[in-house]
UniProtKB/TrEMBL annotation:
Quaternary structure and interacting proteins, as annotated: Homodimer.
Protein name from the UniProt record: Homoserine O-succinyltransferase
Pfam families to which the protein is assigned, alphabetical: Abhydrolase_1
Pathway membership: Amino-acid biosynthesis; L-methionine biosynthesis via de novo pathway; O-succinyl-L-homoserine from L-homoserine: step 1/1
Reaction catalysis annotation: L-homoserine + succinyl-CoA = O-succinyl-L-homoserine + CoA
NCBIfam families per UniProt: homoserO_Ac_trn, PRK00175.1
Length: 379
């Protein structure tokens, strides 16, 4: 590995693409006839093919979870702090697979892809996908890679929901499930936040019913607002206070509605501006709907224990004290349901001031617990 990268980095990585010609039936009643999934791998698959770990991404995530795409990259993959030699998911021991979900906008087939039936960009015509649909597509990717069973399926937030769904849809194919900062279903408050974000996009005059690409425009205002709303919910009040307080950008107030006066305003606008240049609006709508629809207990009269009863995996559930978007109470619901059916489950509630974003951050107790559990299952 080149010396330009840290010793505990997986170094240079290259995305790969898997093509699927067999139609994928979807929960909405439609199907995707032909599609591709973009993914990356880190580490080596052992001879027994027993050391594979699947990384499931959250709402705005993608396949690039660790390492660098070029020596000039300023930032590594989104979970680089947890994936690499000597890290929690140790690539000296595990073969790690990270993909961009179906419906995404980072190479996998999604709303920005060409619809083979029309020769035009899908746009709003791309079907609604669910967490269950993603898991079925991921299982097909596992087949392509020759992986009959994952040593672990790991994810935070929406990724944690996918990890749970894996144990329900393919119980024999998962030995360990790590669901971090997640929930068995969204609360009404969370659905409400998602709806506000969607309405910001849908009401943007540049959205054009989801067919904005055909007109050569982007609903940037809607995407900016959606991201700003999201970032408010990802941080705790303590984290925002510590990071920004009521700090002003200058010593003088402007007494108008257009100036960026507070540091927190500047932060939110920056996050919104940056996001609007790299994320597809239709994908954002799809991802938030997948969050809203996830509720495995619904098919069992609200009985989560019954929904999780097919699972054969051992579980590790982690939450963070100041995460009010996916609070520890929601993780404890998962733990209680697993215990009710006699599953092997470990639970850790980590005292951290950073809110929902904690699962992405180098918090010592979190990383130590993560590493300890993963070391226990290394083969």
């Amino acid at each position: 590995m080149s010396s330009v990268f840290p010793e505990d980095s997986v170094g240079l990585v290259e995305p790969r693409t898997a093509h699927f010609a067999e139609p994928l039936p979807l929960a909405c009643g439609r199907e995707i006839a032909d599609y591709q999934l973009v993914y990356e791998t880190y580490g080596e698959l052992n001879t027994a093919r027993s050391n594979a770990v699947l990384i499931c991404h959250a709402l705005s995530g993608h396949h690039h979870a660790a390492g660098y795409h070029s020596p000039n990259d300023r930032r590594p993959g989104w979970w680089d702090g947890c994936i690499g030699p000597g890290k929690a998911i140790d690539t000296r021991k595990f073969f790690v697979v990270s993909l961009n979900n179906l419906g995404g906008c980072n190479g996998s087939t999604g709303p920005a892809s060409l619809n083979p039936a029309t020769g035009k960009v899908y746009g709003a015509d791309f079907p609604v996908v669910t967490v269950e649909d993603w898991v079925h597509s991921q299982a097909r990717l596992a087949d392509v890679l020759g992986i009959d069973q994952w040593a672990a399926v790991v994810g935070g937030s929406l990724g944690g929901m996918q990890a749970l769904q894996w144990t329900i849809s393919y119980p024999e194919r998962v030995r360990h499930c790590l669901s971090i900062a997640s929930a068995p279903r969204l609360s009404a408050e969370n659905i409400a936040f998602n709806e506000v974000a969607r309405q910001a996009i849908l009401s943007d005059t540049d959205f054009h019913g989801g067919h904005f690409q055909e007109l050569g425009v982007v609903p940037k205002r809607g995407l900016r607002l959606a991201r700003m709303v999201g970032h408010i919910t990802y941080l705790s009040d303590d984290a925002m206070g510590a990071k920004f307080g009521r700090e002003l950008k200058s010593d003088q107030l402007n007494y108008d509605f257009h100036s960026v006066e507070f540091q927190v305003e500047s932060y939110l606008r920056h996050q919104g501006d940056e996001f609007s240049t790299r994320f597809d609006a239709n994908t954002y709508l799809l991802m938030t709907k997948a969050l809203d629809y996830f509720d495995p207990a619904a098919a069992h009269d609200g009985d989560l224990a019954k929904a999780l009863s097919p699972a054969q995996a051992k579980f590790c559930v982690m939450s963070f004290t100041t995460d009010w978007r996916f609070s520890p109470a929601r993780s404890r619901e998962i733990v209680d349901a697993l215990m009710a059916t006699g599953k092997n489950v470990s639970y850790l509630e980590i005292d951290a001031p950073q809110g929902h974003d904690s699962f992405l951050l180098p918090i010592p107790r979190y990383q130590h617990a993560f590493s300890t559990y993963m070391n226990r299952i290394a083969v």
